[in-house]
Amino acid sequence: CYSSGSHKSSINYAIRYKVHIFSRRAINRIYYTQSPSFSETFITSISKPASMKDIPFETVSTASYCFQKNRKEIVIPSHEVMKHVWVEAFESKPLPKVDFEKQMLIGIFYGERLTSGYGVQVSSITDEGERVVVRVKLTRPQAMAENRASQPYHVVRCPHTAKNVVFKYLS
Fold first, then answer.
1. Residue 149 burial class via C-beta count within 10 angstroms: exposed 0-12, middle 13-18, buried 19 and up
2. Contact, 151 vs 120, CB < 8 A?
3. pTM, entire model
4. How many helices, marked H, and strands, marked E, lie in the chain?
5. What is the H or E stretch that residue 89 is in?
6. Residues 165, 106 contacting (CB under 8 angstroms)
7. Which residue stretches of the chain have pLDDT < 50?
């Protein structure tokens, strides 16, 4: 079973369905042990390759509507780039405060969708040695959606890096 959520939801899934959870690239491996009665499941270990380090990040802005009609992944390393991206995507929304000597922004824009109910979320950012990997979760409407266009996005702030940034989409 593929784990695309948090450790807590992965563990809950493992307990509920009594399965071995792993990621496509061996990011997290959760091993479980069942009790003799098969009524309880215990997590025995959680591991991550030593070469991978989680990078902390925080949400700057996220919503279902903006002016960015195209699907884009944007690394924003400077104030000049931020001004350009912000005006294009948000027009008059105030610029966030970012210390670009220490931080940068990463923006994921899902593009225009014909209905509401779509979403985009940065689920993790990891330093994998030569590159930084941003894992992104895209969601689709689960029920009847409103018949109006949406342009979901998620912009996060994280420590500045000169490494190549790669985006991976989780399904």
1. middle
2. no
3. 0.70
4. 2, 11
5. helix 79-90
6. yes
7. 1-8, 10-45
